[in-house]
Automatic annotation (TrEMBL):
Entry keyword annotation includes Zinc: no
CDD domains named among the record's database cross-references: SpoU-like_RlmB
Annotated spans, Disordered: 1-70
Ranges annotated as spanning the membrane: none
Keywords of this entry: Methyltransferase, Transferase
Residue ranges constituting the RNA 2-O ribose methyltransferase substrate binding domain according to the UniProt record: 78-152
UniProt protein name: 23S rRNA (Guanosine(2251)-2'-O)-methyltransferase RlmB
Natural source organism: Hymenobacter guriensis
InterPro entries noted in UniProt: Alpha/beta_knot_MTases, Ribosomal_eL30-like_sf, rRNA_MeTrfase_TrmH, SpoU_MeTrfase, SpoU_subst-bd, tRNA_m1G_MTases_N
UniProt xrefs under Gene3D superfamilies: 3.30.1330.30, 3.40.1280.10
Length: 320
């Protein structure tokens, strides 16, 4: 039987030298490669995608495996589940929007729909993929966003302004869907003395943390009114003695001509950058004005345009 001591010794590893011809000791990781229990760090049975994720995580630019899903839920401003949303409506909490699973019909969803209609909360019937993108938790086919502000009734605000002897100045936004644009507009409006912002129930930007941040806190100061039908709202304002002025590039009259007296009760109507103001709303406007421009680009950001319009109103009021 062969004696283990009679086996020939393994040749010594080749030494390494630095630039000054001095021997350099090998690292511990290299010395352990010759042991029988040595295992390399990256095993062959390890999945390539997990190795890639580990390397990316070490570099600090880790990317999730499912980039179409949010990294985390939206936190306190989100409600999910049929019962929590129903109880929130019963408690008269201000909800921004409700998403219900398309095709679901039961007593709870019917009650949610009726209460949301009474509270003027928009509801969207969406597929399951949309709900799964909003939250990873058990949503039971229902997700709702809680508004960070309390919407105010327009008729009460208008009546209060008249009772206090103030000249109403309102800003009506038609289909402004960008959150940051809405926040910038709210900031302009608060600085220029607007008493309230009027938005439609559907087709308006969601008021969330980004909108509050962009507004620099103005949304906590200026009232926001959510109306189910802007056409009826414009009619109500005109009947209440408020003059409606629409800002549109299709108008013949220009703002610098000062052809419109805007020192009285006024509502400024602004539209989206893509489609402008709806034709049915333009018909209800008392005046239509365009902002003069000297450059080659024939359009302005809606937040900038609203600031120019509101400044002209403030200038006329300060002058008189």
């Amino acid at each position: 039987m062969e004696n283990r001591n009679d086996r020939p010794r393994q040749p010594k590893s080749r030494p390494f030298y630095d630039a000054d011809n001095r021997p350099v000791p090998r690292s511990d990781s290299r010395r352990t490669e010759g042991r029988a229990d040595y295992r390399p760090e990256s095993r062959s049975d390890e999945r390539p995608d997990s190795r890639r994720e580990n390397r990316d995580d070490a570099r600090g630019d880790y990317k999730p495996r499912y980039p179409h899903r949010p990294a985390a839920d939206r936190g306190i401003d989100m409600l999910f589940g049929l019962r929590p949303i129903l109880e929130a409506l019963h408690a008269h909490r201000t909800l921004e929007k409700i998403y219900l699973l398309r095709g679901t019909k039961n007593s709870i969803t019917q009650e949610i729909t009726e209460l949301a209609k009474d509270a003027n909360v928009p509801i969207s019937l969406v597929p399951l993929e949309k709900l799964n993108d909003l939250t990873r938790k058990n949503h039971q086919g229902a997700v709702a966003f809680v508004s960070p502000i309390e919407y105010q009734p327009l008729d009460s605000i208008l009546a209060g302004l008249y009772e206090d002897g103030k000249t109403p100045l309102l800003l009506i936004l038609d289909r402004i869907t960008d959150v940051r644009n809405f926040g910038s507009i709210a900031r302009n409006a608060e600085c220029m003395g607007v008493h309230a912002i009027v938005v439609p129930s559907r087709g308006a930007a969601q008021i969330n943390g980004d909108a509050l941040k962009t507004s620099a806190g103005a949304l906590n100061l200026i009232p926001v009114c959510r109306e189910p039908n802007l056409k009826e709202t414009l009619t109500f304002l005109r009947e209440s003695g408020v003059q409606v002025v629409a800002c549109t590039e299709k108008a013949d009259a220009s703002l610098e001509a000062q052809s419109v007296d805007m020192s009285g009760p006024l509502a400024v109507l602004m539209g989206s950058e893509e489609d402008g103001i709806s034709p049915e709303y333009l018909k209800l406007a008392d005046y239509k004005l365009r902002i003069p421009m000297a450059g080659q680009i024939s359009s302005l950001n809606v937040s900038v345009a609203s600031g120019i319009m509101l400044y002209e109103v403030l200038r006329q009021r300060l002058t008189k």
